[in-house]
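Thread: heme C complex, take 2
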Amino acid sequence: MRKTLVVAIAGALAVGAMVGGATIALAQANVVKERQENRKQTAAAMRAIKGIIDAKGPTAGAVEQAAKLKTLEAAFIKMFPAGSDKDTKALPTVWSDWAGFQAANKNADAAFDKLAVAAGSGDQAALAAAFADTGKACGACHDKFRAKAN
Ligand code: HEC
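Output below.
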């Protein structure tokens, strides 16, 4: 009787651990999708700004896009829990050099601030220059922390 109970409890714990493991794996797969979706929106905001630059008209519309970029970047850095390194283009360096990854994130955030200022100034050349610098901030992070292909 007692033995049966112990076996039953052990069995229940084992099932619990399996379900728990599967839940964690699922959560990690979701966070990878979420951060990739975040980057898609980031790329969309950059395309919108490029459109504004190419139109050679008023630059003010880019202020909102720069704000969007800042919000996305702040959310993005929180989407790298331990174990979310599977089925992703994020390189292991994200976790092994977390301080470097955070610095790249801050660097991008600073570029978005300059982008907002340039957009608000109405100066097309200033906006184009700030946009080019922003692109470099994206690339600097990708060079170190994103796989070229997987
Ligand atoms: C702090 C680092 C960092 C910065 C800054 C950064 N990225 Fe990325 N980006 C990544 C990482 C890491 C991935 C891979 C995410 C994954 O697969 O889990 C990625 C993925 C992407 C993707 C592919 C998304 C997909 O569909 O899988 C695009 C597009 C992208 N980034 C665009 C940009 C643009 C545009 C900027 C600048 C405005 C930018 N990124 C700034 C780190 C960064």
